[in-house]
């Protein structure tokens, strides 16, 4: 009798807790005003699998992280207020003259608050890891005032140690060295690894470190996925290459990743500098932004027409998701070709639809993806989208091995883009990313040539027939697309 009473009592408590959980979860999701399909999916998950879905949401869920976003926005506004007037007054007075098609795309970026195209004195594409490392080392060795680095992955391996040691020597020369590394992507690079650089006067901060709190459990989101180096405010590096052994054929041989990076000299670097300073400040770094100091970090632009470049960035602090919007606009206006290289191809519905419509308009749409990526889950999910693209008339190619890690896009003879963003929801909405849009024909032609070379050694993607178990697993992996 007593046991029956206790069992009934505990059952009521469990049902009450379940009811409170469901009501609270639904209330929270509805207030976020996210897309209806995503909201309904989470509601069904919370109702059917309350414990499992709760843990999954805490780790991967697309929460707004209001407090962190507020703190990041405050860092951004403090920088904007102090340097905006100087930036406007010291910019190059001659503006790039673009084709009507390029001008229309550039206006999209400008109206998203990303700034207008500016002239780069030079642009160099760095398509091999050893070329990238040697170019980086030469620029760092020549630094006179400062070296700023922001990386998602910086490993304490041969390549990572080599660059750290070079920066240690650079700091001993009196050059200011500041580094921001992501707390998840660069978790192996601990304080012991950075000690020689810090002892030499360099400064290192971790972006969004993990904390034992409800917000801290959401460690998969709000990462800086950028790879930026700024030297003396006038030399910039950005693209897909991290600092770890897989980037180099010297250390990894034939297994070195295929990737794309770029060196940009001139006024566009000031935009990269501002992005770095925002994340440096957000990460707790000190930075005095009086006028004299700003001039040292963002030197006055030279009146020197060169190659038109537009730097655009996105992150979870801005609901406009500029890189995603720009990619959609570029595909939608393409007339002849859209060539994309991406290691993660997990498109959302608008991107998937835009690519299919482009094919129907007669545009040559080609996509190169890895044959096997660095994540089995992503590779499995990606194959389902590649199947759908192939059926819609998109030419999908699989590269490798080695691993393909480049993130590029070519649209007609109008646009070439190199960036850090993958074609997935995580890059578009959950991480901080950066890209360079090039409107110069020579740069576009070089990117197109590299694409053609990679396509020549790739194979056509073919739907896997007969393997029902594999197809089922890939379909299950597809369900995780929103958080991949």
From TrEMBL:
Its main location: membrane. SUPFAM superfamilies: Phospholipase D/nuclease (SSF56024). The keyword Membrane applies. GO terms for cellular component: plasma membrane. GO terms for molecular function: cardiolipin synthase activity. The chain crosses the membrane at residues 12-30, 36-59. Residues 220-247, 400-427 form the PLD phosphodiesterase domain. It is found in: Cell membrane. GO terms for biological process: cardiolipin biosynthetic process. InterPro entries: Cardiolipin_synthase (IPR022924), PLD-like_dom (IPR025202), PLipase_D/transphosphatidylase (IPR001736). This is Cardiolipin synthase. Keywords: Cell membrane, Membrane, Repeat, Transferase, Transmembrane, Transmembrane helix. It comes from Usitatibacter rugosus. Its EC number is 2.7.8.-.
């Amino acid at each position: 009798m007593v046991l029956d009473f206790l069992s009934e009592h505990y059952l009521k408590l469990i049902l009450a807790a379940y009811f409170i959980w469901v009501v609270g979860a639904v209330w929270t999701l509805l207030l976020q005003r996210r897309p209806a399909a995503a909201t309904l999916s989470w509601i069904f998950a919370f109702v059917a699998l309350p414990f499992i879905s709760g843990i999954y949401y805490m780790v991967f869920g697309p929460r707004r992280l209001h407090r962190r976003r507020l703190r990041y926005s405050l860092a951004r506004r403090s920088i904007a207020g102090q340097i905006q007037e100087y930036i406007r007054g010291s910019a190059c007075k001659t503006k790039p003259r673009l084709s009507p098609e390029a001008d229309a795309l550039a206006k999209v970026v400008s109206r998203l608050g990303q700034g207008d195209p500016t002239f780069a004195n030079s642009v160099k594409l760095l398509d091999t890891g050893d070329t990238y490392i040697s170019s980086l080392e030469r620029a760092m060795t020549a630094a006179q005032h400062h070296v700023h680095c922001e990386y998602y992955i910086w490993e304490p391996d041969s390549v990572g140690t080599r660059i750290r040691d070079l920066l240690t020597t650079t700091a001993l020369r009196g050059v200011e060295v500041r580094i921001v590394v992501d707390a998840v992507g660069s978790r192996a690079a601990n304080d012991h690894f950075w000690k020689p650089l810090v002892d030499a006067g360099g400064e290192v901060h971790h972006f969004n470190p993990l904390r034992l709190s409800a917000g801290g459990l959401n460690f998969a989101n709000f990462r800086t996925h950028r790879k930026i180096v700024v030297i003396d405010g006038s030399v910039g590096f950005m693209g897909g290459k991290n600092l770890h052994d897989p980037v180099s054929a010297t250390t990894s041989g034939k297994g070195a990743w295929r990737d794309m990076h770029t060196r940009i000299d001139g006024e566009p670097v000031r935009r990269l500098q501002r992005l770095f300073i925002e994340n440096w400040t957000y990460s707790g770094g000190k930075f005095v932004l009086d006028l004299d100091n700003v001039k040292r970090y963002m030197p006055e632009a030279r009146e020197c027409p060169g190659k038109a470049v537009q730097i655009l960035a996105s992150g979870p602090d801005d609901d406009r998701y500029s890189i995603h919007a720009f990619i959609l606009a570029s595909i939608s206006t393409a007339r002849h070709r859209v060539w994309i290289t991406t290691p993660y191809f997990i498109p959302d519905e608008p991107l998937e639809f835009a690519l299919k419509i482009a094919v129907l308009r007669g545009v040559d749409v080609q996509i190169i993806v890895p044959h096997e990526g660095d994540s089995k889950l992503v590779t499995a999910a990606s194959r389902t989208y590649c199947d759908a693209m192939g059926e819609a008339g998109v030419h999908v190619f699989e590269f490798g091995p080695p691993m393909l890690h480049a993130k590029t896009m070519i649209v007609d003879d109008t646009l070439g883009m190199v960036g850090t963003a993958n074609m997935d929801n995580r890059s578009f909405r959950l991480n901080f990313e950066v890209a360079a849009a090039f409107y110069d024909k020579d740069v576009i032609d070089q990117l197109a040539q590299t694409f053609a070379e990679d396509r020549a050694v790739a194979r056509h993607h073919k739907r896997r027939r007969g393997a029902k178990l594999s197809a089922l697993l890939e379909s299950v992996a597809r369900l995780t697309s929103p958080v991949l």
